[in-house]
Amino acid sequence: MKEGLSAADVRLSQRLSHVAEHNTSIRRAAIVLAHSGDSPLWVGGLLLTLWLGSAPWQFAAKVDLVGIGIAAVVVQMIKLLVRRPRPPGEWGQGYRRLDPHSFPSGHAARATLLAAVSLFLGPAWWAVLLLVWAPLVALSRVGLRVHYLSDVVVGTVCGLICGVALGLLLAF
Fold first, then answer.
1. E-strand spans in the chain?
2. How many Å apart are CA 169 and CA 166, to the nearest integer?
3. pTM of the entire structure?
């Protein structure tokens, strides 16, 4: 059963990556989306928001930074337990060198966490933007062959759990 699921995961992942490999416009968009979920970009942007933002945005930045940290710890613990190698591919050599393990996707977890937290902290336009952006980040990672589909599904679940838990804590 496990082999059958693994084989299906590889097949579906290859189909998704096939689209990005054969359509230049989709590939370019996937590269931009994949990088838009990078942690240095988000941590830097959130630190800038802490410095220059209004009080509500500063609060949201603090919550997001805590959430990113929590999600990163959860993802890294799972990666160290599972140690699934990344799919073969040429793109993303920096990711491959820095972190050779693919399961679960930290980008999918981070993007989903940010989207989930935005539902609690608003504004609505920001939440909608992140809710559209997060799955595109996850799919771009599969399309560029740095993750399998199951990596981004489990990363999304990790980010959702962390984001909703953090949002519920804020409600109390």
1. none
2. 5
3. 0.91
